[in-house]
Write a structure and sequence with these properties.
The longest helix has 31 residues, at 16-46. It contains 15 helices and no strands. Helix 1 runs parallel beside helix 5 (137-165) and helix 14 (335-364) runs antiparallel to helix 15. It has two domains: 16-201, MFS general substrate transporter like domains (Growth Hormone, Chain: A, Up-down Bundle); 210-385, MFS general substrate transporter like domains (Growth Hormone, Chain: A, Up-down Bundle). It is mostly helical.
């Protein structure tokens, strides 16, 4: 037998307060991913770190926060405890204790534990977001996901304010955000409905139950990987592309800010559209229309470049929440596990691909490599998207 977080009839009402609480928790959780970069330069000086050591700290945070998600997703599908959400913001707050570490090894261990909290948070929160959204699951999950994007920006702003105002010693103050928001979730986390299915399910039985779903889930995962890789290439290298093309540093910074702002709006509206038109159609459209629009961005000058970049961001991010909901609906007995695969694992692999593209850019120029990589990756995603499983819209 397999298990699921909930097989009881789901509430058909869109629970606004519950979604709002998840958004706040997601903001707090992901804020610590934005918290680290502004303090790395000071840690390099304070702890006498090399640039590669500083980079490893950031990579370790991303690694434990992403790769750990399938493990916690598998675990969450069995324990079905909503309070696991609390471990995300609380664990993330460990980042603020880096200033107390006496050696590099302890810093790596601390950052690994901080990422582990996030790995626990995302699969559980994704399932609850769908569960409490009634018939508007696409919208609910998309709003929840948008909270994470907002959190990264807020975390970076808080971290920058603390270090520029009071110095590195003030960083632990930022840990209060995770504690204040995380601890109440031990008591107020949205309830995960119980199931009559047994909890004693081993790994082999899980693989067996997923065997018939390998092909549709793999296609969904690959399409999402292509889309995520494209958006990560833009968010990572667009400022550099603008500067390399003769623009100012300020123009480069504004380009990515506007791209991500439009992306957040597009993600929420895409979730709404997926509830009306279907997840499959939104996933196909996100790449089918988003890639050509993004391609035009590299062919025009300002102000059209910014307009097309924002439009591309909205379109490309429109399937973000819908893709997670889609996977949950295809594999309803493994919602947390498939959510982890669609979010954390995809994000981490997309980051690695982005690094590879950067290395190629060092050889052939980012002005050439970035557009080619985006069009090639996006085109593969478009072709694969037409193999997405059909939905039962009854």
């Amino acid at each position: 037998m397999t298990t699921t977080l909930d097989d009881a009839p789901e509430n058909t009402k869109f629970q606004k307060r519950g979604i709002f609480s998840l958004v706040i928790a997601h903001i707090a959780n992901d804020s610590y991913f934005g918290f680290l970069p502004p303090i790395l330069p000071l840690l390099v000086v304070e702890m006498d770190l090399s640039l590669s050591m500083a980079g490893l700290l950031a990579s370790m945070f991303a690694f434990s926060g992403a790769i750990g998600q399938p493990l916690f997703g598998y675990f969450a599908d069995r324990v079905r405890k909503g309070w696991l959400i609390a471990l995300g913001p609380i664990g993330g707050a460990f980042v603020t204790l880096l200033v107390y570490m006496q050696n590099y090894s302890s810093m790596l261990l601390l950052i690994f534990l901080a990422g582990g909290g996030s790995a626990c948070f995302h699969p559980v929160a994704s399932v609850i977001a769908a569960q409490i959204s009634g018939k508007r699951k696409g919208l609910g999950v998309s709003v929840y996901v948008a909270g994470g994007r907002l959190g990264v920006g807020i975390g970076a702003a808080i971290s920058t304010f603390l270090v520029t105002t009071w110095g590195l010693d003030a960083i632990p103050i930022g840990g209060l955000l995770g504690l204040v928001i995380g601890i109440p979730f031990f008591f107020i986390a949205p309830k995960i409905e119980k199931t009559s299915l047994p909890l004693t399910v081993n790994f082999q039985e899980t693989l067996s139950s997923l065997s018939d779903l390998v092909r549709p889930l793999l296609i969904m995962w690959l399409v999402n990987l292509c889309r995520t890789t494209v958006t990560m290439l833009v968010s990572t290298y667009m400022p550099l592309y603008v500067v390399s093309a003769g623009g100012s540093v300020g123009a480069g910074g504004r380009s990515i800010t506007l791209f991500l702002f439009a992306a957040a709006i597009g993600g929420i509206y895409g979730g709404h559209l997926s509830d009306r038109l279907g997840r499959r159609l939104v996933m196909i459209g996100g790449l089918l229309f988003g890639i050509p629009v993004l391609g035009v961005t590299f062919m025009v000058s300002e102000p059209l470049q910014t307009i097309f970049l924002m439009l591309a961001g909205a379109i490309l991010y429109s399937p973000m929440g819908a893709s997670v909901t889609y996977a949950q609906e295809v594999a309803p007995e493994h919602k947390a596990l498939v959510s982890a695969m669609m979010l954390g694992v995809v994000w981490f692999l997309g980051s690695l691909i982005a690094i590879s593209v950067g290395a190629l850019g060092d050889v052939w120029s980012i002005l050439t490599v970035m557009p080619v990589a985006i069009v090639a990756t996006g085109s593969i995603g478009v072709v694969l998207s037409f193999g997405l499983p059909k939905e039962n819209r009854a």
